[in-house]
Design a protein that fits this description.
Layout (H helix, E strand, L loop, with lengths): L11 H4 L10 E2 L6 H10 L7 H16 L21 E2 L12 H10 L1 H8 L2 E6 L2 E7 L1 H5 L3 E3 L1 H7 L1 H7 L10 H9 L3 E6 L9 E7 L5 E2 L2 E6 L4 E10 L6 E3 L2 E6 L4 E10 L3 E11 L4 E10 L2 E4 L2 E4 L5 E10 L4 E10 L5 E10 L4 E10 L7 E10 L5 E10 L5 E10 L2 H9 L4 H12 L1 H4 L4 H15 L5
Parallel strand pairs: 3-7, 6-9, 7-10, 8-11, 9-12, 10-13, 11-14, 12-14, 13-15, 14-16, 14-17, 15-18, 16-19, 17-19, 18-20, 19-21, 20-22, 21-23, 22-24
Antiparallel strand pairs: 1-2, 3-4, 5-6
Helix pairs in contact: 2-3, 3-9, 7-8, 11-13
């Protein structure tokens, strides 16, 4: 896959940070109010048959306005909610790549979306600021009953499924930014996999922030019915501006009995983006949920993929990696909640900090008294590349059942002189040696994703490592 292909001799701005000038066809005024919400609902025709969505949005806005900003995690004091554009649309959704406006088409061509779709994807969505501009799914999956659309189409065509599950895993009252997303959400994915259907190739969505001081608020809802299997991959980039942008998404996954859902994220935001995301799954009897999450770029990321195991035999596997450079804070981690017996979970978190960057692991593990024979392992590894970078670990383990088997390991390390000497004695430069060590440190992530994505991930790490020597 070449959706973010980079030349490691260039920086982010040259490869991803450019923007295109194109007129919008719908756009709300700057700032957030009831008028903003009503305008979004009007554009989306939510004031008629789907009036309940407009009511949901207004209720969410009220909660957002009343709820205080979080005082933990990263520094959120520079976010000015009155200086953000909350909705911007450029074109109606197309199912033919060549029908897109040339500037939008060229944007995604540069990022490699058409090539990825041809080679390894079962279905693709591409979002440009607030709306999906291109979407396609293979015909054989349609015939099997697989639904892969944006939330607007999901609401209109499949209201019996959409309304049943929407907002049930992440309610609008969950946190301040969940309330914000619930008020202004637009774009994203609505996916339903029928019973015993296996989608053998990944579904992908790609999110691009193009405009200045924009907010992107996609919403993803995945329902895997009994015995089904699906792998969903998302990629993210943004243009570079002097003003900050805000990305605040919600992902809800419902894994019904014996289903298997893997959700992979390769995030590569520009460093003027605040990335504040709520991702949560519910796993029923013998269901498996896997989060595979890479956090590169952004000014601040706060993201903690979670799995609530409600059914006996459910499994959760969360792999989170993060890279923080100068003026970056990656506050990431995971949450696992064992609400049923004989459930298992595994959390692996790895982070690298350089040039004064900061990484934070923030995790939660809960086993109530009623849940017997629970097994869980947590491992956090951090690598510091210099004396001015920082890493913190905040695990919270609440174990009420004495039969639970819990392991927790955490390490913080630096690259040793002996390692560098050994590699340089084999003919590598210091920069090549550092790249090899960091790439190897993240190898646990690269092994878990398709080859095309692994190549891309390693290129992104090499891009971040530029300037690590000297």
């Amino acid at each position: 896959m070449n959706n973010c292909t980079v030349n490691i001799n260039n920086n982010y701005e040259e490869k991803y940070g450019w923007n295109v000038k194109i007129d919008s066809i719908n756009e709300t005024n700057i700032g957030l109010s009831e008028n903003t919400i009503n305008e979004i609902s009007k554009i989306k025709n939510e004031n008629k048959e789907n009036k309940w969505i407009n009511e949901f949005r207004l209720k969410s806005l009220k909660h957002f306005q009343e709820r205080k900003m979080p005082t933990w995690g990263g520094n959120l004091s520079n976010i000015n909610f009155n200086n953000i554009i909350y909705y911007k649309k450029f074109v109606d959704k197309k199912d033919n790549w060549n029908k897109l406006p040339i500037k939008i088409k060229e944007t995604f061509d540069k990022l490699g979306i058409p090539e990825a779709e041809k080679n390894i994807l079962a279905g693709t969505s591409a979002q440009f600021d607030s709306e999906i501009v291109y979407h396609k799914i293979r015909e054989d999956l349609k015939k099997q009953g697989v639904i892969f659309v944006d939330p607007d189409e999901g609401l209109q065509k499949y209201p019996h499924i959409f309304k049943k599950y929407f907002g049930t895993v992440v309610p609008y009252s969950d946190n301040k930014f969940a309330a914000l997303n619930s008020a202004v959400f637009s774009g994203g994915s609505f996916i339903y996999i029928p019973k015993n259907v296996e989608v053998k190739m990944p579904l992908q969505a790609y999110f691009r922030i193009n405009s200045e001081n924009i907010g992107q608020f996609e919403r993803t809802l995945i329902i895997a019915d009994e015995g089904s299997k699906v792998h969903y991959i998302e990629g993210c980039t943004a243009s570079v501006y002097s003003k900050d942008s805000l990305h605040s998404a919600i992902v809800e996954i419902i894994a019904l009995p014996n289903s298997h859902v893997r959700y992979t994220t390769l995030q590569n935001w520009s460093k003027n983006v605040y990335n504040l995301v709520t991702k949560r799954a519910v796993a029923y009897e013998n269901a498996i949920v896997e989060w595979v999450d890479a956090n590169i770029g952004s000014s601040l990321t706060m993201k903690y993929p979670s799995v609530i195991m409600k059914g006996e035999g459910a499994k959760a596997d969360i792999l989170s990696v993060a890279f923080a450079g100068k003026n970056q804070h990656q506050d990431t981690g995971a949450k696992v909640i064992h609400l049923a017996s004989n459930t298992t979970s595994k959390i692996t978190a790895k982070s690298v900090s350089k040039d004064g960057g900061k990484t934070t692991y923030r995790g939660k593990l809960y086993v109530p008294k009623k849940s017997d024979n629970v097994k869980s392992s947590v491992r956090c590894d951090a690598l510091l590349l210099d004396e001015i970078s920082k890493t913190d670990t905040y695990p919270y383990n609440n174990i009420e059942n004495n039969n639970a088997v819990i392991t927790h390991e955490a390490t913080v390390g630096k690259i040793g002189e002996e390692e560098l000497f050994y590699l340089r004695s084999r003919g590598l430069t210091e920069e090549m040696a550092l790249n090899m060590i960091v790439t190897g440190f993240f190898d646990v992530f690269a092994k878990e994703i398709p080859l095309e994505y692994a190549i891309e991930f390693n290129r992104l790490i090499q891009l971040e490592m530029i300037g690590a020597v000297g």
